[in-house]
Specification:
With about 290 residues, this protein is of the alpha/beta class. The protein has 2 domains: about 80 residues, Leucine Dehydrogenase, chain A, domain 1 (Rossmann fold, 3-Layer(aba) Sandwich), CATH 3.40.50; about 130 residues, Rossmann fold (3-Layer(aba) Sandwich). The strands form 3 sheets. Strands 1-11-8-7-5-6 form a 6-stranded parallel beta sheet. The termini are far apart. The structure holds NADP nicotinamide-adenine-dinucleotide phosphate. The site of NADP nicotinamide-adenine-dinucleotide phosphate has 23 residues, from helix 10.
């Protein structure tokens, strides 16, 4: 079997088209969704993420404001910026780009964002709602994984989903999303991590296998059953002197051999990556609607 490719670029473009239409409709009603981004320092990867988020907003017709603060900014000034955005009617969603410098508490900063404007879905109130199955913004990367599954015709309902990795931003929220008793979810979910003695024992039982470990090409073909749907969240930089940038990107899945056994697979790059920013835009549009109704 050779896997069909689930293109994150194509699914993201489809969702952005839907969002562009929704933003135009909202503007006709006098509602302009707006994203406020806070960037602390000049980490090149963070700068690049923030730039693509701003570009994404402009492309779908949303308002966007990025506040850039120096790496040595006091925590209090970051909180002041968030406070201002919490109270700014032009801002419907706030995103603080992570990681933050060590002197700034991520928990404090995330907890300071108004839950109604927490478009990353990381606020403890929203994570609690997610677990309880109440409406809330879903964290962007796991939400993107759900959309990739549903829109490629791989509804997780009744399927055994094995997630490798239990981080707060991917594995844990994805397990909470896919186990809910609702459309596009209702899966049986297993989460594996470094505490598992034999990961292959679990991955071989997966109908849908999600790799989110940050270990390049960890999932090899012998760990995957024929016909499994494989979603690769991993983005790893592998030093490569033949590349202009000095590295190549690799996922957590050994793509070529696994694609020979899987029924569907996401590539890296071009799989889960493009979905993350798209779901951030989606959450911001939804937040604008909720704030307007409040
Ligand atoms: N495409 C996107 O938009 C996007 C977004 C976020 C992350 N990512 C990528 O996804 C990957 C994971 O990111 P993350 O932030 O979730 O990583 P993380 O915080 O480092 O968590 C990694 C998880 O994988 C588990 N793990 C690591 N090595 C393992 C091993 N050898 N055996 C079993 N479990 C292992 C860890 O287990 P323990 O808990 O036991 O330590 C942990 O739960 C990274 O490559 C990251 O770049 C991509």
């Amino acid at each position: 079997m050779t896997a069909k490719i689930i293109s994150g670029n194509e699914v993201a473009a489809e969702i952005r088209k839907e969002l562009t239409a929704r933003v135009a409709e909202l503007k006709n009603k006098g509602i302009v969704p707006g994203l406020g981004v806070v960037l602390v320092g000049e980490d090149p990867a963070s700068v690049s993420y923030v730039t693509s988020k701003a570009k994404g907003c402009q492309e779908i017709g949303m308002f966007e404001e990025t506040v850039r603060l120096p790496a040595d900014v006091p925590e209090e000034d970051v909180l002041k910026t968030i406070d201002r955005m919490n109270n700014d009617p032009k801002i419907s969603g706030i995103l603080v780009q992570l990681p933050l410098p060590k002197n700034i508490s991520v928990e404090k900063v995330i907890g300071f964002i108004s839950p109604e404007k927490d478009v990353d879905g990381f606020h403890p109130v929203n994570l609690g709602k997610l677990l309880r199955g109440e409406p809330c913004p879903l964290p962007c990367t796991p939400h993107g994984v759900k959309q990739l599954l549903v829109r490629s015709g791989n509804d997780p309902a009744g399927k055994h989903v094995v997630i490798c990795g239990r981080s707060n931003i991917v594995g844990k929220p994805l397990s909470a999303i896919l186990m809910q008793k609702e459309a596009g979810a209702n899966a049986v979910v297993t989460v594996v991590h470094t505490g598992a003695s034999d990961i292959k024992h679990y991955t071989l039982q997966a109908d849908i296998l999600v790799a989110a470990m940050g270990v390049p090409e960890f999932i090899t073909a012998d760990m995957v059953r024929e016909g499994t749907v494989v979603i690769d969240v991993g983005v790893n930089r592998i030093p490569d002197a033949t590349k202009k940038k000095g590295f190549r990107l690799a996922g957590d899945v050994e793509y070529g051999p696994v694609a020979e056994k899987a029924s569907f697979i996401t590539p890296v790059p071009g799989g889960v990556g493009p979905m993350t920013v798209t779901m951030l835009l989606y959450n911001t549009v939804e937040a604008a609607i909720r704030l307007n109704e409040a």
